[in-house]
Amino acid sequence: MKPIIVVILCTLLSSVIANAQKIEAESSASETVIHAVNSNSVSTSSRGVYGEGYHGLEGMAKGANGIGVKGTSTTSTGIFGTSTSGRGVWGDSESSYGVLGGSDESIAVYGISGLSAGVLGQSTSGSGTSGTSTNSYGLHGTSQNFHGAWIRGNPTGGFGDIVLGGSNYFGGNDDGVIMSDPTLIGSDIFLVSNDAVVVEIDNDTTESGSFEVWNDINREVLILGEDGEFEIWNGASTNDRRLWLQSDGDLFIDGALTEGSDRHRKENIESVTEAYVLEKIMKVPVYSWNYLGDKTPHMGPIAQDFYGAFGLGETDTGISSVDIHGVLLASVQALKQENAELREKIDYLTERFEELERNHR
Questions:
Q1: Which distant-in-sequence residues (6+ apart) come within 8 Å of 21 by Cβ?
Q2: What is the mean pLDDT of the chain?
């Protein structure tokens, strides 16, 4: 069977559509089956290939490096398909691109659907959908009652659904960038998940990775390192670090730490006997020590001793600053009371001594 090559110019295609004729073309060779060209670069309604129906435009390729649907344009949309209930553009390929579009001045691939996917591209070993453009969006999909685009990798092969190509956003030509619509002032990006949102840092293990939040002057505001270190910066031009949680658990704060102690958030409020607290704290030994693997010297009680004396907190392996502050405050009050009693006795004895001295004279 000789290869079937059908070359349809736009004028012929318009005539066929007007007469509601059906076009079918098939080939087993490597030539183009259907090729449409429109030389009119002025009219906005002129298109190389335009399809409407359940699937506006559908193409399938089975051979090596075959492309299901391909369209190019220098001034307008490379591929444009509309559908009221099916897919606007649908391309399927076993080894190459499902949908491939290119444009210099407009959208490379543009699909619209009322009830289904605007653009759907499938491929067994190539790219499902590929769109390139010089001055506009490489790929654009919209839908009135469904999601604009649906992209899915191999669900069992450990591959990503979306892979962002390298760009020079911050230098180095190796940045993957997700950006909200730059034409809309105040546009936001939302990540919506039915479960967790997981970020894996330094997947290729080639260098130290981090999760960072920057402000509009390209200053760090938040940094989470792959070793668990967490930093908060003020984001100003001087960019001073305000909080630093190190991987070994040390916490540095450039400012005051305020712990919640509102009466309205407490219950079972009871007075304590300060003298009893002072007696207990005298039985808690104080040591100098350092943490394992960290030679920085410290001084303080052992958590087990503190918990054994007062039974405060949720665990006997840590001491809450709220509890130790309360114990120290009660002890100071007990010492103040003891000091007042001693002062009263001293004053009495001093007065008696002076009286005896006067009488002795």
A1: none
A2: 79
Full domain range(s) for residue 6: 1-37
Let me know if residue 79 belongs to a domain.
Answer: no
Virtual CA dihedral for 297, 300, 301, 307, nearest 10 degrees? Answer: -110
The 10s digit of each residue's pLDDT in 315-345 is 999 999 999 999 999 999 999 999 999 999 9
Q: What is the pLDDT of residues 115-149, one digit of tens each?
A: 777 777 767 766 777 777 778 777 777 777 777 77
Q: Does residue 62 or residue 317 have the better pLDDT?
A: 317
Please state, in angstroms and rounded to a whole number, the distance separating the CA atoms of residues 176 and 129: 18
pLDDT of res. 144: 77
> Can you give the chain as a three-state secondary structure string?
CCCCCEEEEHHHHHHHHHCCCCCCCCCCCCCCCEEEECCCCCCCCCCCCCECCCCCEEEEECCCCCCCEEEEECCCCCEEEEECCCCCEEEEECCCCCEEEEECCCCCEEEEECCCCCEEEEECCCCCEEEEECCCCCEEEEECCCCCECCCCCCCCCCCCCCCCCECCCCCCCECCCCCCCCCCCCCCCCCCCCCCCCCCCCCCCCCCEEEEECCCCCEEEEEECCCCEEEECCCCCCCEEEEECCCCCEEECCCCCCCCCHHHCCCCCCCCHHHHHHHHCCCCCEEECCCCCCCCEEECCHHHHHHHHCCCCCCCCCCHHHHHHHHHHHHHHHHHHHHHHHHHHHHHHHHHHHHHHHHC
Is 297 part of any domain? yes
| DSSP-assigned beta bridge partners for residue 211 | 224
Which residues pair with residue 119 across a beta bridge?
A: 89, 149
Q: Is residue 349 part of a domain?
A: yes
Parallel, antiparallel or unpaired: strands 210-214 and 220-225: antiparallel
Number of domains in the chain: 2
How far is residue 124's CA from residue 196's CA, in Å, rounded to a whole number?
29
Residue type, 261: S
Is residue 356 in some structural domain? yes
